[in-house]
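Posting for a labmate who doesn't have an account.
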Amino acid sequence: MKYKIFNYITVFFSVTVLTTSCVDNEDLLQVDPNVETALSFWKTDQDAIAGINAVYSSLITDGTYMRSTPLLLDARSDDSRTNSPWPSMYNVGHFNSNVADAAIYGWAYETYYQGIYRANQVLANVPNIEMTNAALKNRILGQAYFLRGLYLFHAVNMFKNVPVPTNIAVKYPQKTEAEGWAQVIADFTAASQLLPISYASVSGLDNGAAGRATKGAALGYLGKAYLFTKDFDKAKATFRQVIDLGVYSLVSNYRDNFTTTNENNSESLFEVQMSREAGGVALGWGGIPASNWGKTSARAITYAPRGFGWTDVQPSIALFNEFHDEKTKTGDLDPRLDATIFYNKPGGMQLYGQDFATYYAKSTADLNDIFCRKYQNSDGEFADEMDWRSGINERLLRYADILLMYAECLNETGDTPGAYGYIQMVRNRVGLPDLATTKPGMTQDQMREQIGHERFLEFPLEGHRFDDIRRWGWLQNATKLAWLKARDAEFNSYTPGREYYPIPQLEKDNNPGTVQNDSY
């Protein structure tokens, strides 16, 4: 049974929502003697656990994985379309976020730094707690390093030049992208040295706690940070460490990665824990957690098919078509198509207990359209997503990603033949033919293109595609950019610099000297 990290602390974290704020140091010293503060809180093992749980809690508010972060990661890629009537959401997918309106991207920025601040509280205070269980202390610190690295990973990846807080202060200067990535790498490195492979047999308050960061999660993200900074040798060695842990494997049913059926499974290195049963039913829009907040996601209603939710995000036609490029060994369509997209399938397709063709029979446009199935509660248990309360865990890092990133590193370091086997592991699950037989002897450039295709079909609507497009330099390649525009008209709105989101105006106001990203 999945472990829920939903034990919040709200007292001393109330001093911050943003990293930067317009307060004087003297203001911070005025303490209400009747209210517990950070200075009086950190005393016991239980306090340390509650503190790290509060760092996790920043993963499930609107700025992060309740809604905004998946949108920011998915909407600009060629595997999705964004037709939201809400301008702020529409603009995310059209490279046109408004510096005067920080909705969505600003909420994400704010929450990343809320999480970083909370992690810094743990890192500053837990070492001073006299804990009888030294291993538990190390695990808590390892989780704090991991979560700070994860929040900063998102901040650097999406906003480029950002503050890099590693202590508790009032203001933090803007740093370069390189400095940001260096800290991300340092945090994941520290986490990988402190975290256990699993919590199944540890001794302490976290015994058996599925859902907490592990050594594999830290190494996986460390390898990813190396890959994003084009240090292919270190990335390759780090991904090899994950593989050699021997604890991860692909689940047999691809769709099990996107429903409540098989959460925290053997393929999952890290996932954000959601639940319809934990907490209340109010939505966690942001700020200090309240006792009536639910621990659920609004991703499902945001991406849901027409009539079942808002349909703000839909799969692209290019994605649907590319799933038809190659048949399985038995001559069938790639099964990931049906796990990812709702469409008017010959022979019928069910959604929320309804037949697709019957439900949309009166709307030719919808009957001939395609909708998101991944991360939808659509297998018949629910009539729709209109209560905004999806309990499906958000899978941030899967073993399939490790295998394909490792294959990419092999290719980039001169071992193109070696990449075949790791790609084939992912293809085997869905019954695709042996790539070494269908496309033998590929050059390094040909293998790069093949890996792009493999990743496109394995990870659509999971927040990876635009990161791939950007790190591969396709936006600066005239041929590739024209190709993207031809398959996704939203790329016609792209201008250089818009691969990053704008720095929120509030950050500029509160942090003098902050330089806005190019083109904004």
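Reply:
Got it, the structure tokens are right above this. The beta strands are 80-82, 268-272, 275-279, 294-295, 313-315, 341-342, 350-351, 354-355, 371-372, 394-398.
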